[in-house]
Amino acid sequence: MAGGDKSMKALREVWRRAENSLCADCGKPDPDWASSTLGVFICLSCSGIHRNIPSISKVKSLKMDHWDDAQVQFLAKHGNAVTKAVYEAHIPIYYYQPTYNDCQVLREQWIRAKYERKEFTELGKQLLYTDGVKEGILWKRGRDSGQFQPRKFLLSEREGCLKYFTKQDAKEPKINVKIDVINATFQPEKIGNPNGLQITYLKDNKTRNIFVYHKSGKEVVDWFNAIRSVQFHYLKVAFPIASDNEIKSRLTRNFLKEGYMEKTGPKDAFAKGEVFVGSRENGYSVQKGLPSGTQGNFSWPYGITIVTPDREYLFTCETEADQLDWITAFTSIINQAMTPQEYAIEAYFKFKS
What we know:
Blueprint: H1 3-15, E1 33-35, E2 41-42, H2 44-51, E3 59-61, H3 69-77, H4 79-87, H5 104-116, E4 133-141, E5 148-156, E6 161-165, E7 175-178, E8 182-186, H6 188-191, E9 197-203, E10 206-213, H7 217-238, H8 244-248, E11 262-264, E12 285-288, E13 302-307, E14 312-317, H9 320-334, H10 340-352
Antiparallel strand pairs: 1-2, 1-3, 4-5, 4-10, 5-6, 6-7, 8-9, 9-10, 11-14, 12-13, 13-14
Helix pairs in contact: 1-3
């Protein structure tokens, strides 16, 4: 057997190992690229990020490029499991590890944090999102003008809140939001910036949004993980018997579904268009279609009925695919048990109605 054939056979054997069946960085199945300097198997998308840090990682296609014997032996000696044991040895429990479904800035900063900055190789390493305090400038979109302006933000674990100030020398914040009512998720398309972050919070049990970005991908991802860090430590105190993984599941979450539906039915105190959706065991459900005999001015034909203990909410979707997607999203929420905080929000909604 020729030397090249032997190398390709050996490469395929390493490639077929179970540990290498998913991208080392985002978890995408069937990676067909690898780093000849790190020894990891990665997907095409992550290989593009590796290619931007050539001093750390040199990538090659497993299908199209030539691999010499030394490179194949290096891959065989390392692989995803061995390399992860080094570069992912001490990831904070609250640190968000992106998947292939996440946006570019999250995946890029995750890869740079691992291999370039080596943030997770040492136990107890001090990082900018682990201090319990973060202060800096983010560009915030104005509610009325729609223009982005620099604003000072302050996140404090000791005070358990996030503040922002309209002027850098201002004594009092424009808002002061408790950390337990905050959610943060990256929304680059909605915000119109690849580093766009949407911060959602509750004020008087009504949903409010802050849209921000920073020109530095590292800085905006550090803010995101700092919020998760402060939330984690707050919830550890609030729920001392909960496991770390239980608390982790209650940190920032991506939106399950976002889009448009038409709403019908009586107009009431929910003027902001918010509907509380609880668990099935508490009397909530979702049904395909509208109740028999429903009347109204519908321009979209595909109905959804949200059933709550007190009343029904009627919506319509433009397409059947949208209808099914919304039903799937509502069902996933209804199948989850409610948290103490969600019981409090439910009680507020019932009081307002």
